[in-house]
Specification:
The structure is a homodimer. By secondary structure, the first copy, chain A, is an alpha+beta fold. Chain A has 4 helices and 3 strands; from the N terminus they run H-E-H-H-E-E-H. At the A-B interface, helix 1 and helix 4 of A face helix 1 and helix 4 of B. The structure holds a DNA duplex.
Chain lengths: 105, 105
DNA sequence: CCTACTACTTGGTATTGTCAAGTACTATAT
DNA sequence: ATATAGTACTTGACAATACCAAGTAGTAGG
């Protein structure tokens, strides 16, 4: 799958998934992978970035199946950011796909 | 508009526009701008790249309204590339948008 | 001859994804 | 007890692509 298409979109997917409920990194990698192929080394930096930008807050929780998990919780600012990214994505996607569909004819 | 969303998509738009008929650079900048905001300095490097990869052939033609125009013509290999990128885009776009729409509920 | 529009080029920068390797914990089987 | 597999996270070097700004140059109109 074209790597470039994912740029920016992975951030949006992560935001939406964490919006739904708190998640830990490894879980996010799996969730996102169900939608598009993605690498661990891609998701963790996104989480770090979004946390630095105050879109996420984190806390630790022990697990019986392995090492401690770092959970991500979306902040108010994160929700706003998510909403505005969502809007932008649909605007973008619509204008691109409409153009492409028209030009296919 | 989110810069990152455009990554890879601009190449696809350029390929589709040139598929329809031969175009020169400046014209392409205008055409693409109708779909998504874009910079001159972004389109020209794409054209150079696609030409280097033998997806385009070029020829010069004089113009009455300004300097000589460099026209881009799509090659057989370019058409193939365009088709496969189109497929990838729709696969990608569909799985992302479907997920986002479901998660909005 | 000055300005605007057309047309293309180039160089430096920022962002983001990939790959590969490494650390470390738990559970299960040998 | 130890080797393996699965879970969980981190890091660093690298590649691709978009942006901005500036520069070159031709044509047309005031």
């Amino acid at each position: 799958m074209n790597t470039q298409f994912k740029k920016g979109v992975l951030e949006l997917l992560v935001l939406v998934i964490v919006s739904e409920k708190d998640r830990y990194g490894y879980e996010l990698v799996e969730k996102v992978s169900e939608i598009v192929d993605v690498n661990e080394g891609t998701i963790y930096p996104i989480l770090k970035r979004l946390t630095n930008e105050n879109y996420f807050e984190t806390y630790l929780e022990e697990s019986k199946e392995g090492p401690v998990r770092k959970y991500y919780h979306i902040t108010v600012s994160g929700k706003k950011h998510c909403k505005s990214l969502l809007k932008e994505w649909f605007l973008f996607e619509n204008s691109v796909s409409n153009f492409l569909k028209e030009n296919k004819k």
